[in-house]
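Backbone-to-sequence.
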């Protein structure tokens, strides 16, 4: 007894890592995205004369937008603390870093969110 396995097309990010495997209808929708580059199988001979296009082999999704390089953890309050072990401080106690008066309100906002 044989079963039909659906063909899954690999979807890669801009670094070439596979992030998804899409079936044909989803691959067609992804191919319409403005940041998508479609890699197709080479068409030769009679199929080229008929005007056929090669089937989709892979879809590469590039970066879309200018926020790619932004740090997503700017409001992390842990980076304002450090482990300080001394005779006065018990082991495992975090100490607050010295904050400039200009950035102290930003820290308060990050902690209270």
């Amino acid at each position: 007894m044989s079963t039909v396995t659906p063909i899954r097309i690999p979807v890669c990010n801009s670094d070439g890592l596979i992030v998804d495997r899409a079936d044909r209808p989803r691959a067609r929708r992804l191919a319409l995205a403005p940041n998508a580059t479609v890699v197709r199988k080479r068409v030769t001979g009679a199929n080229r004369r008929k005007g056929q296009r090669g089937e989709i082999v892979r879809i590469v999704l590039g970066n879309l937008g200018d926020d790619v390089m932004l740090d997503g953890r700017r409001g992390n309050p842990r980076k304002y603390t450090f482990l300080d072990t001394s005779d006065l401080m018990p082991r495992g106690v975090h100490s607050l870093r010295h904050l400039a008066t200009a950035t102290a309100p930003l820290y308060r906002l990050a902690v209270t969110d």
